[in-house]
Design brief:
17% helix, 7-stranded parallel beta sheet, 24 strands, 247 residues, 27% strand, alpha/beta
Length: 247
């Protein structure tokens, strides 16, 4: 585990020790850092189908054991590659960042991660098993943010996440006014998004929430409490607006 003060200050007072802290935010070891950055330097900017094929071949050995090949467009950024796992048919668009940690990121079959999306399970006190796990046939929209590392984000099958949506497990102990905000303790609560959920553009889902199957979160909503199955919810904070007829 990285000391929070060292993590906070590694850009303020450079040193060999803090340099190692920086590396550890991006890879599981010094050796892995240089290997992963090296293959990115060689392959990440090659455009078009040729680049997709070359990255599929070159990157696969670096992913978590039993991971499948992913189809990555150019200018995607991957950190802690040995904690990233893909099922078959995963596509990742340009300018996405997948930043794993001890809390792995596992993307299900036929997931689509669209341009500029940011999936992050890195925090200084990340916990194994509390990263990001998605089911099959999910769509994560343009510039969406999924952030865990504590608590975990667990997404079912056939889930649509709209552009600019934010799904974030973490919070800070804001009641501790005896320390600066940047030094308040970080903690995360799990988020469960069940099958066939649609989360509208610019929505926010906060830690400790469960969204029931076949539900819709209206655009621009802030979800702070559980949403029942077969429900349209919206507002700030989100409240049930209507029921969806079950077939």
């Amino acid at each position: 585990m990285i000391d929070n003060d060292r993590l906070k200050n590694y850009m303020e007072a450079p040193s060999m020790g803090l340099g190692w802290t920086y590396i550890h935010t991006r890879a599981s070891s010094l050796h892995r850092y240089f290997l992963e950055r090296g293959i990115h330097l060689i392959f990440s900017r090659i455009p078009g189908p040729l680049g997709i094929v070359l990255r599929a071949v070159a990157y696969k050995p670096f992913f978590q054991r039993h991971s499948n090949t992913a189809f990555l467009e150019s200018s995607t950024d991957l950190f802690y590659m040995d904690a990233i796992k893909y099922e078959k048919g995963v596509y990742i668009d340009k300018f996405c960042r997948i930043h794993a940690s001890a809390a792995s990121i596992e993307l299900g079959k036929n997931n689509r991660i669209m341009k500029g999306a940011y999936l992050c399970s890195y925090v200084s006190n990340a916990r194994i098993g509390e990263g990001i796990i998605t089911g099959s046939d999910c769509w994560i929209g343009i510039n969406a943010v999924l952030a865990s590392g504590q608590g975990g984000i667990f997404i079912g099958n056939n889930v649509l996440i709209g552009p600019n949506a934010a799904i974030v497990t973490g919070n800070h102990d804001f009641k501790r006014t005896d320390v600066p905000t940047t030094e308040q303790n970080y903690y995360g609560k799990p988020i469960y998004i069940n099958d066939n959920v649609w989360i509208g553009a610019n929505s926010t889902v906060l830690g400790g929430v469960s969204v029931g199957e076949h539900s819709v979160i209206a655009a621009g909503s802030v979800v702070t409490d559980d949403v029942p199955a077969y429900t349209v919810a919206g507002g700030v904070p989100a409240r049930p607006l209507s029921e969806i007829k079950r077939k």
